[in-house]
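Ticket 4471: requesting a sanity check on a complex prediction with benzoic acid. Repro inputs:
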Amino acid sequence: MRNISLDNITPAVLDTMKDASDARFRELIGSLVKHLHAFASEVHLTHAEWNTGIDFLWRAGRISDEKRNEFVLSSDVLGLSSLVDLLNGSAHGTESSVLGPFYVEGAPLLPVGASIVGDNSGERVLLRGQVLDAAGQPLAGALLDFWQTDADGLYSQATPHKPEFNLRCRMHTDAMGRYALQTVKPLYYSVPYDGPVGDLLRAAARHALRPSHFHVLVSAPGHRPLVTELFAEDDPYIDADAVFGVRSTLVLHFERHEDATSAAPYKVEAPFYDVKFDFRLAAEEGAA
Ligand code: BEZ
Ligand code: FE
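Returned structure tokens:
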């Protein structure tokens, strides 16, 4: 095409991809091109602004490695990760929330009621409940994988002087679908702020904090695996999560107890917070 103009550049680009054999690819790339072009036209993007955007992507690539993905973090702070979670959630299961970058495979497998407190200081928490199917029936042998920050807001990656799997564990539910975990109350913390995403947040006059939360992966054969988070109701940032992961159904009351009698049969050290949550797993698509 030799007559490219403002009027035909978008259909001209789309036309070059009309023979792509994958229909979903055609739909995705076509829509992306249309929206990118519409965005540039709407704001009348200048060369300098285009360059700033390209530089952001270049710097995101430069700062990323196997442990840090600045593109995922960009998606998180722009709400895209949470939008994708919301679009793909199941009406029959617990709501999902962002995975984040701090998951580590292979945490120790502990029995129901176990403690991951170790040498960590902080307020004690008993987190407990059941894993249920969509009809409310207990799922025995479901696998939960937990991780969280310590009481200073640090994940194990930032505390190399502590045990490798500090404040992480996996657990199978018992015959009644129950799980129970003794831990410490996590603290709000900042997402990585020293790269291009940090610059973006500063330019937008935004903070980088996430309200305190437990991360949990839950899986059981024949059910959709769940990636979610549980939040503390009293956290100062509960209504201001930098990555938009909070859902009202995932905000929990931390009930304080001065003695351990209500926590029998678990050997909980008082005072502690009793936090109860039941996970619901939707059936896998195609499962009976
Ligand atoms: C986190 O919860 O650990 C997290 C989530 C998204 C971005 C950064 C951190
Ligand atoms: Fe987190």
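Notes from triage: The chain has two domains: 1-45, 80-281. Leaving this open until the requester confirms.
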